[in-house]
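Protocol step 4 of 6: structure prediction from sequence.
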Amino acid sequence: MEIKFFKLVTNEFVISNVKEENDDSYLLTKPMAVIRNRNQFILIPWLPMENCWLKKIHILVEIPISHVEDLRKMYIQQTSGIVVPDIKVNLKDIRKEG
């Protein structure tokens, strides 16, 4: 599964696991709407269903998830309970220790 971030023709932003893709649709799992509240983003369930098909004709823009890393981490934490740590490893420090 791959996490994707979309802007829809309805002007909604949606982030979701994409379970399956065909020529005209994506099968979304646990889709969440992204809402901006002052200086922060909030994720809320987009639909009451856990799985749904999204037609590609309803997608205005597919935004690379690497551009919204904080939203990806927030989505993983909210949908799975797993906290994704911010770990930056300096390879020079590892080589000195070893």
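Step 5 (inspection) to follow. Helices lie at 69-80, 91-97.
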